[in-house]
């Protein structure tokens, strides 16, 4: 009789363990699917940025920024790094189209997210903060060009609609 009770307890223990393990596995699978869906939305938005005219590119970046800010699937480091990239893209677009006020705002927000990405708020060394904010506008524009080119070497289509040089800030 004790042998049967032991088997029943053991089976119950295994069943509960499987349920907990299966639940964790299901949760991880759901998180992976959410992250994949998020990445696809972001890729679609960036594709619009790369292929749209000035206004479509601008709206696409703003949409991606809102998507990133609202994200619950990204960790803080990934979120801040992606926001930095999109804000410098927005800075480049606004700078290249002559929107001085909007370009300054985008640059400040880019610097904020870069500091967050580099975990500077935890730093006590002023040199780290200065380093994070030391890129010149020209350096940022060049970085955006490299970022946009990726492995394909392509450039955003909105540049075709501009009459000023795409590597110079206003």
What does it look like?
- The protein is mostly helical and 170 residues long.
- The chain has one domain.
- Helix content is 74%, strand content 0%.
- α3 (76-96) packs across α6.
- It starts with a helix and ends in a 21-residue tail after the last helix.
- Mean pLDDT is 80; it is low at 1-20 and 165-170.
Number of strand segments: 0
Rg: 23 Å
Number of helices: 6
Report the sheet with the most strands, covering strand number, pairing sense and barrel closure.
none
How many separate structural domains? 1
Nearest-integer average pLDDT: 80
Low-confidence stretches: 1-20, 165-170
Cα end-to-end separation: 87 Å
General shape = globular
Order of helices and strands: HHHHHH
Class by helix and strand content?
A: mainly alpha
Beta strand %: under 5%
- Helix content range of the residues, please? over 70%
Briefly, what is this?
This protein is an all-alpha fold and 170 residues long. The chain has six helices and no strands.
List the helices and strands and how they pair.
Blueprint: H1 2-51, H2 54-70, H3 76-96, H4 100-117, H5 126-132, H6 137-149
Helix pairs in contact: 1-2, 2-3, 3-4, 3-6
Q: How would you describe this structure in keywords?
A:
170 residues, mainly alpha, disordered N terminus
């Amino acid at each position: 009789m004790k042998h049967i009770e032991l088997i029943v307890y053991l089976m119950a223990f295994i069943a509960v363990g499987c349920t907990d393990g299966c639940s964790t596995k299901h949760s991880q699978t759901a998180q992976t699917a959410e992250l994949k869906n998020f990445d696809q939305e972001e890729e679609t938005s960036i594709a619009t940025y790369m292929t749209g005219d000035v206004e479509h590119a601008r709206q696409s970046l703003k949409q991606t920024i809102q998507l990133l800010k609202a994200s619950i699937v990204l960790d803080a480091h990934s979120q801040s790094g992606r926001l930095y990239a999109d804000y410098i893209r927005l800075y480049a677009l606004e700078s290249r189209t002559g929107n001085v006020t909007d370009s300054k705002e985008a640059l400040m927000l880019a610097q904020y997210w870069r500091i967050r990405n580099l975990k500077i708020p935890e730093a006590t060394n002023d040199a780290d903060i200065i380093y994070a904010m030391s890129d010149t506008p020209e350096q940022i524009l060049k970085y955006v060009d490299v970022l946009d080119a990726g492995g394909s070497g392509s450039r955003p289509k909105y540049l075709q609609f501009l009459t000023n040089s795409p590597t110079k800030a206003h």
